[in-house]
Amino acid sequence: MYDHLDIDVDCNGWCIHRRANNIVRRFLFFTCMMLAFRPIHAEPTHCIRLSASELGRLPHVGATGAIIGHIGGVPMALRSAALAVMEFDDNLKVAASPSYRRPIRDFGLDTDLQMLPRLNNRESEAFHGTDSVSTKLRVRINANSNYYGPQSVTNLVNNYVVNLPFTYVREKERVFGLDLYRPAIAADGGNIVRPPNNQANKNIYTYRASSDQSATFISCSNSIFATASCQMQFTLEPKLPAVVSVSLNRKLLPAWMEIKQRVAASLTNFCVN
Fold it and tell me: Do residues 49 and 162 share a domain?
């Protein structure tokens, strides 16, 4: 927390100057983000799907200062302060007459992992040793006309690999509970030659459980730089018919499951009971 606190010490060892402007700015930023992600409805959310007529009769109580619409019939109220982008299927501007009947096509949030509620009020051991890693997340949600069902994430593996110039080989051992596919260039004699580490090739991690609803697809840059990122995709089924894409620092990959759960919990907080 104090990595930006500068302290000048004179020859007698006394502190004569300290600059804490960055700490104040960080405090104000986190405070604003906590307010933006605070649930509009305090009671537990269940993300109940309603008919078009029911959405039209739903009062706007508690949605002051929020942008409203629906995802697959589930009424949503999103705080405008938290949004980086917002689009509707009807192509109307956000300033148009608010209604829960408006289908939300996609929206985006730029946030920080530290602002998302922790599971069981504690942080996973997977985060140990990542204190100096950026915890900023870029979250994008696609729904309604931009959503192709829970199987869309499962289909990503085949569709993604087909268009890349490498052969992908599945590793025998799982990594962080994920199946790992690494790019390879087939050589004479059956030997596997790896392409150079750069932005052009990526490692692919997949998680499949008993249903498409639990599938997770992650692609990570093989860049040598510390700022290399991963893109994680999963659905919010069965609560919300939507697919989520999260950009995160590659060093946070060991904690992918907790990040997924915390992002999903924060997004479903926007459901209107």
Answer: yes
